[in-house]
Amino acid sequence: MKELLRTTDPTIIAFAMALLRGEGIDCFEMDVNMSVLEGGIGIFPRRILVHEDRLIQAERVMADNEIPLGRP
């Protein structure tokens, strides 16, 4: 699995995952439970991972929908 997206905005995560699933790209959301540690203030970014074979296709889906990847 490779990191596709990193953001603190939960709406971007939800939208990106819906787009990926709509394209048939399996994805996994990481760091969901960090909100317990941070108290829900949104300082820790969440990540979306995709299989490395589908990374380029997933990046294209994000670019087509103007979603910044936010990776370091």
Automatic annotation (TrEMBL):
InterPro entries: DUF2007 (IPR018551), N-reg_PII-like_a/b (IPR011322). Residues 1-65 form the DUF2007 domain. SUPFAM superfamilies: GlnB-like. Signal peptide: none annotated. This is DUF2007 domain-containing protein.
